[in-house]
Amino acid sequence: TWTMVNIVDEQVERIRAEVGSKRVICALSGGVDSAVAGALVQRAVGDQLTCVFVDHGLLRKGEAEQVEKDYVAATGARLVVVDAQDRFLDALAGVSDPEDKRKIIGREFIRVFEQAAREVVAEAGAGGEEVEFLVQGTLYPDVVESGGGTGTANIKSHHNVGGLPDDLAFTLVEPLRELFKDEVRRVGEELGLPPEMVWRQPFPGPGLGIRIVGEVTRDRLEVLREADAIAREELTRAGLDRDIWQCPVVLLAGVRSVGVQGDGRTYGHPVVLRPVSSEDAMTADWSRLPYEVLATISNRITNEVREINRVVLDVTSKPPGTIEWE
Ligand code: XMP
After folding, report:
1. What is the DSSP-derived secondary structure letter of residue 318?
2. Which of 24, 40, 142, 262 is positioned for an S-S bond with 133, CB 3.0–4.6 A?
3. Atom number in ligand 1 closest to CA 318
């Protein structure tokens, strides 16, 4: 629309004025905000921008490929991908406590990003202009929440790259500071980003790591990724994506129950469907999904994911339940 075109043009001008001929770095998380912020900066200053994507192995099915292929195709962004899956899984080995998982994932993310940023900085310095700016996908509600200050990032999750050492102190570029989430999505569409990326549900920085109740392992991630992909596919097919806020699928890795399939007894794990409706994630109600959609999701998951023999529905509002299980 006309308004979105205006917003894009205005931001592109501002970014150009701010950045000049310096270099910029942007951490892509796979989420909407960093993707749109990065795309705006790319539109403004082209190859002065380097995007860094840390693949921590905790993303959902297809999401890493979306960043590596579709995002690059849509924006032309120069992208450095760091495959850090082993490192994250090693660090998470034996850990079940939710807060410990969050801390470990956050800590590893900063370390990996720091190293990647150093390489980008060194390479840029050798070839000319220094890297001086870091893109942040800060939205208007974040600005208001943090008192409207400028220059310092509001650190909501580890994907807002706080905690970098002083010698990697960047000036922040925050092209989404005046926008609400729905405007960010429309700007993303205007910039030609893939719809699956633009309309993606909120997804926690620690990813599937906090949707496995119990220790995070490669096998469990694989199981959860399949179950989650089926749920997302069926919700999309039913046209429900924009009605619900998000629908975590949670693997109860420490629980087994008896089932029967064909002639055989099974002893598998349950997954929990946690569909919620919400305005801002501060409070939420469980979504009254149509029974047919629930039935299809349940049938498909138990048929297609061998390790799962039971699908249960979470009917708890927030409060008292949080949206995520961890
Ligand atoms: P809860 O579970 O607290 O979730 O009701 C509220 C919203 O925040 C998301 N969430 C997170 N996002 N890092 C994030 O970036 C986190 O550690 C985290 N934990 C929860 C959650 O998906 C929901 O949208």
Report:
1. B
2. 24
3. 5
